[in-house]
């Protein structure tokens, strides 16, 4: 398509100024496209004799476009430890939207993964919300995103969970109890498994959830997936792994061992593939 333009000078300029035109391009990665590999070659054709420094930077808009399709992180737990006790590995997240250390939920528990063995799993960016009431009724899970608010209300003869609008923070998910009587429990799920729960939310109050893109991981005993862990268990887990900008990685466990030669368990990310 041709676009014909006419330049008209209605200014008061008397200096014979030059007018330049240019076109701004935007680099966008289409969904499913392989990561873009942009190679640049800096050539100094200037008259500079002052050994000036050249700074390069990346535009935030480009970074957002390149990572917007990251929907999950593929992880692979590898046991390279000296442990011979068939220890359990617990993986969970902490709810940041609270001023107190509320109990965390064991999102994933890895069992019987012996020395040299591995256990692949996926951490999805997507999540779902659900509630249950004091009568033992559970609502269906609804897809949720950060910045959304849901509420439980009485429709007909039953409690119904539905989308209400925007939350007060773009980093949080809110679930409000709009019933006239009766407390509810509000839950967050990832990959179909319970990630976090807020119990006894009374009418006109809300449960608030906020999570960093990190996973807590440690060695525990007698813990089941979906279990609300007490403070004694959580205090033994002190490794936090950031998943920010990652599409896949290995979680390698080392350390352990019998007797006096035992060393603390250590967890590290290896073979990282960035978004």
Please explain how this structure is put together:
With 275 residues, the protein is mainly beta. 5% of the residues lie in helices and 40% in strands. It has two helices and 16 strands. The protein has helices at residues 60-67, 231-235, and strands at residues 72-79, 88-92, 108-110, 118-124, 127-133, 142-144, 148-155, 158-166, 173-177, 184-190, 193-201, 206-209, 214-220, 239-242, 246-256, 263-274. The strands form four sheets. It has a four-stranded mixed β-sheet, with no helix packed on it. The radius of gyration is 27 Å and the shape is flat. Residues 24-39 and 55-68 have low confidence and may be disordered.
Q: Can I get a quick summary?
A:
By secondary structure, this protein is mainly beta.
Beginning-to-end CA distance, first to last residue? 35 Å
* Count of separate DSSP helical elements: 2
The helix content, as a percent range, equals under 10%
Unreliably modeled segments: 24-39, 55-68
Task: Report the strand count.
Answer: 16
**Largest pleated sheet:** 4 strands, mixed
The pLDDT mean sits at 84
- Please trace the helix and strand order, writing H or E for each element: HEEEEEEEEEEEEEHEEE
Tell the overall outline.
flat
Helix-and-strand structural type: mainly beta
Q: Main traits of this protein?
A:
four-stranded antiparallel beta sheet, 5% helix, mainly beta, 40% strand
């Amino acid at each position: 398509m041709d676009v014909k333009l006419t330049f008209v000078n209605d200014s008061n300029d008397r200096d014979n100024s030059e007018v330049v035109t240019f076109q701004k391009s935007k680099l966008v990665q289409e969904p499913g496209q392989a990561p873009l590999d942009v190679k640049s070659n800096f050539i100094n054709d200037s008259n500079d004799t002052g050994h000036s420094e050249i700074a390069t930077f990346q535009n935030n808009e480009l970074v957002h476009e390149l990572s917007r399709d990251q929907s999950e992180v593929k992880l692979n737990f590898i046991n390279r430890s000296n442990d011979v006790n068939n220890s359990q590995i617990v993986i969970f997240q902490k709810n940041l939207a609270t001023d107190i250390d509320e109990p965390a939920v064991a999102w994933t528990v890895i069992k019987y993964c012996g020395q040299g063995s591995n256990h692949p799993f996926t951490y999805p960016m997507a999540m779902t919300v659900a509630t249950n009431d004091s009568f033992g009724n559970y609502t269906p899970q609804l897809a949720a995103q950060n910045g959304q608010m849901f509420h439980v209300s009485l429709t007909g003869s039953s409690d119904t969970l539905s989308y209400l609008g925007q939350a007060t923070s773009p980093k949080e998910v809110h679930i409000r109890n709009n019933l006239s009587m009766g407390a509810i429990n509000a839950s967050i799920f990832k990959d179909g498994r319970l990630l976090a729960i807020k119990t006894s939310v009374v009418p006109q109050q809300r449960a608030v959830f906020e999570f960093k893109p990190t996973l807590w991981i440690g060695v525990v005993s007698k813990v089941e997936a979906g279990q609300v862990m007490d403070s004694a268990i959580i205090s033994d887990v002190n490794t936090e792994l950031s998943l920010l900008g990652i599409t896949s990685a290995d979680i390698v466990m080392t350390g352990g061992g019998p007797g006096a030669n035992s060393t603390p368990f250590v967890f590290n990310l290896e073979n990282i593939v960035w978004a």
